[in-house]
Structure formats: structure tokens, C-alpha cells
Amino acid sequence: MAAPTSALAPKTLAILKRLGVPAGAYAESGLTARCPIDGRPIATLATTSESEAKAAIGRAYEAFLAWRAVPAPRRGEFVRLLGEELRAAKEDLGRLVSIEAGKIVSEGLGEVQEMIDICDYAVGLSRQLFGLTIATERPEHRMMETWHPLGVCGVISAFNFPVAVWSWNAALAFVCGDSVVWKPSEKTPLTALAVQALVERAGARFGGIPRGLSEVLIGEREIGAALVADERVPVVSATGSTRMGREVAPVLAARFARAILELGGNNAAIVAPSADLDLALRAIAFAAMGTAGQRCTTLRRLFVHESVYDALVPKLAAAYGSVSVGDPLKAGTLVGPLIDAAAWRGMEQALADARAAGGTVHGGTRVDTGAPDAFYARPALVEMPAHDGPVLRETFAPILYVLRYREIGEAIALNNAVGAGLSSSIFTLDMREAELFVSAAGSDCGIANVNIGPSGAEIGGAFGGEKETGGGREAGSDAWKAYMRRATNTINYGRTLPLAQGVTFDIG
Ligand code: UN1
User: Fold this and answer.
1) 1: DSSP letter
2) What is the DSSP letter of 293?
3) Per-residue DSSP letters for 268-286?
4) Active site residue 35
């Protein structure tokens, strides 16, 4: 017997209709979209077969051939219109993110704001895709570099940022002259269909975009694997677990395609003796409990100097005990549901491992909201005797492991003593400590912050991390270069042919 439909289904389907998702997206059988708020199905979606995926990639390839000929600032105009559509749809799309990913309303809206921000950024970038002019050793020559569109960009995204991560890639790829084929998480297909509908609206207002410029593949991991394996896709941006990255990376490497990998994080913060403890408390609470611990930038390990441990940790434990857990659509809720039963099992397992390793667990119990198929948990603060066991792995749930430290060098070594290298932070008012932390001898992560937590990055900086996080960079700074190919051009405007390095080759 089919499970009863989510109480939020009618409202959700109305949002999808307003955003322009066509009735043909739904089917009798296929992928079931669920709502983590009550754990029930919302809709069943038509899935993409492997041959349909191949056809979609083919359309995207044809679209690329046309799109690369459109001047970049004109491509920027399309992204500007997409940003306008996102602004107009912010309430609806933000709500949909909350319904499908379980984020509180302000975080659902924040995710859409992140999309708007990257569109604005990409519009400016569309007039700044510049290369260098380089001094040459030969007379009457000029050397320069030119950036050209690359091709079809594959995007594989995770449930926890179901739409923003696509936009970091797509907004840049579109202005760079690429087409985009998107395989969203099978846990969040509805938000992907909504975004695709907004892309089409923006395309219509633009006066038409090439068919296939933006494609969405709905289905499970096989369809993502088909995208990764396809020779017509020269760059794939994949966000998800390190385990997923270990499968994707060799396939891309074997065909010399580019990988932009944004994998696991096991992010730490250090609270030093001089820290502003009130500020640190608020920052830690958001970074560790926000998004129910389901960001790749979530704070998972906290190293507190022994001199401030007793001043901070009991207050933190009190915040963990009092934070409101429940329906993310209700005002006042700060912690929504875990995405599914598997996430709750992972949390239970990690806490059992922590106890077995001598940890003291505050919170971490399942919260009953009257919906048996939904998984709400009180965030867990775990005081650990040693940096070991579950502390070393990423559990995608609201668990914060706390340890004491004595010397800053020891705390930095612990920060760096895990496989992942995404984000990190230090709370200190001591300039020497702060500078050491962000120096070459400090944090080994892609993101290293001072007096803010490790999560909640804005789009202007390059986003991503080192080691098992995969090394990819998305969003701001010069991340756009990954979506283009560079040509070095040497031009001889003279009448002689001087060879570089003084080589002579006289054919008489
Ligand atoms: C992610 O969890 O995959 O820095 C991305 C942040 C957000 C993005 C997180 N801007 O927390």
C-alpha cells in the first residue's frame, strides 16, 4: 500500500505550478519526492532513462556550439534575467527548499538569496573574462592568453543545498559560454524542476536560449554516473560525500575531464583564551546546529582552551538543551528535521561510538513530533576525552565534539588532523594567534576564518577545500576559470621569424 501523502503536498504542488513546473513532470511511477517535515511522499516524478540522458547531453552539446558564439556580456544578460526571476520567486522557491530539504524558513530564503547573489556576480563577470598580455622575448611579437567557452558542464548536487550549489556552477558556466546538465540529489528533485522552470522563463524573456542550454536529469545515482562517463562533458562539478568523490574522480581522470569536487568536511573551531566568549557562543551555535548539522561547512569539532572551557561549555550545553527543534516552517524553530531515516541512524551510530570511546553526550535524542516517518533530533554536544573514533569522520547530523587544548600549536595540529580540509575557524583577540591560524603554518583548509564560524560563506570568495574535500573551488574569486579553456596566443606582426630560445633553423 502506498504511504499516505504529505500534508504539505497540495501546498507544494501549488508552489511548483506557480513556478512553472509542467504537469508532464509527474508520473504514475518513478522517483518519489518526500518531505522530511512529515517524512511522507509529495509527488512521483518521471525519471530520465539512460538514453534520455544521452539525448539531453547531446542537446546540451549542440546548445554549447550556439551559445559560445553569443558575446559574453549578452550571455550575462540572460543570467541577469535569471536573477530577476529568482528575486520574483524568492518566497516560493525558499519555501520549497524548506519543504523539500527541511531547512528553517530563513535558511530556505537564504539559499535563494545565495543564488541571486551569484547571478549578480556572474553578470559583472560576463564583462571581465579577461586574460593577460605577456612580454615576449621576440621582437615584433605579442603574446596573450584568451579564455574560451569549454563545453557541457555537468553538475551533481547534494540534498542539503539543493539549488544554491547548482547556481554557483550554472551562473558562471552560462556567462562563460557553457551549457549545463544537472543531476540533482534524488532526495531533492522538486527544487531542481522549479529552478529549471525559472531558467526557461528567463530564457523566454531573453528572446530564446538554445534548446538544451540547461538540462535536468531526474533519477538515482546511475544517471549521475552516465553524466560523469560521457565524453561530451569536459567538466563535472560534483558535491557530496568523499565516498562519491572517490567514484567520480577516477572516471573523470581516465578521460582527462576536469573535476570540481566539493566533498566532505570535518570542520573545526578553536576557542582561544582571549576569545570573546559571547560572540563565540552565538557563532558556534549557528555553525554547529544550523541546518540541523547538515551543511558541508557545519562545525563538527571544537577545541576549547582549558582556561575558558568551564566558562563556555556549560553555556553551550544549555543552548543545546533549549534550542527549538521542530517544524522548520514554524516561526521560532531553529533546528528542523534530518533528511531521512538513514541520517538519524548515522547520528545514533556516531553517538554510540562516542559513548564507547568515553564521550559524555548532552542531547542527541530523537524528538517526537507525532510524525513517525520524520526524523527530528535534539542536537548533540559531546565532550570527548580524545581526538579519536567518531570525531575523525564526518557524520551528517548535528553533533559537535568538544575537546580541551593547552597550546595553540596543539589546537592547530588537531584542526588539521582529519582527512577533510574544507573549513575552519579560530576565536581569538590575540593577533598573533589569528595570523598564525591563517598563515601557511596554520589551518590546512580551503576556508579559514577568524571570529566567525566555519559555515555560511558568501559567494564572493572561492568556495571549496583541500585533501579529501577534493580540491575544487566554486563561486567567486577566479573560480570561473574552471569553466573555460585557456589559449596562449603568440602573434608575429614583423617580417622576420626569430625563434624562441635563440634556436636557428635556416633552410637557406
Ligand atoms: C554546502 O553545505 O554544500 O558556506 C554548501 C556555507 C554555504 C554553503 C554550504 N554558503 O555554509
Assistant:
1) -
2) G
3) EEEE-TT--HHHHHHHHHH
4) no
Give the DSSP H or E segment for 83.
helix 72-88
The grid coordinates listed for 219 are 533519477
In this predicted model, what pLDDT tens digit does every residue of 74-119 receive, in sequence order? 999 999 999 999 999 999 999 999 999 999 999 999 999 999 999 9
Our CA dihedral for 410, 412, 413, 419, rounded to 10 degrees, sits at 150
Query: In angstroms, what is the span from residue 55 Cα to ligand 1's centroid?
Result: 32
Task: Render pLDDT for 327-368 as a digit per residue (tens, 0 to 9).
Answer: 999 999 999 999 999 999 999 999 999 999 999 999 999 999
Best residue among 163, 239, 296, 447 to mutate for probing ligand 1's pocket (most ligand atoms within 8 Å of CB) is: 296
CA nearest to 261, candidates 122, 130, 155? 155
pTM: 0.97
Q: Which of 35, 153, 176, 296 is catalytic?
A: 296
Strand intervals (E) in 75-140: 133-134
Whether 296 sits among the annotated catalytic residues: the reply is yes
Give CA separation, 491 vs 131, 147, 322, 507, in Å.
15, 16, 68, 22
Q: Cell numbers for 363, please give them.
A: 542531547
Length of the chain equals 508
**CA 241 vs CA 118, 136, 218, 456: distances in Å:** 24, 45, 19, 19
Torsion from C-alpha of 329, 45, 228, 146, nearest 10 degrees: -70
Query: Distances from the Cα of 457 to the Cαs of 280, 394, 423, 474, in angstroms?
Result: 17, 19, 10, 12
Q: Residue 4: is its pLDDT beyond 90?
A: no
Ligand 1 proximity of 118 Cβ (cutoff 6 Å): no
* 370-407 pLDDT, tens digit each: 999 999 999 999 999 999 999 999 999 999 999 999 99
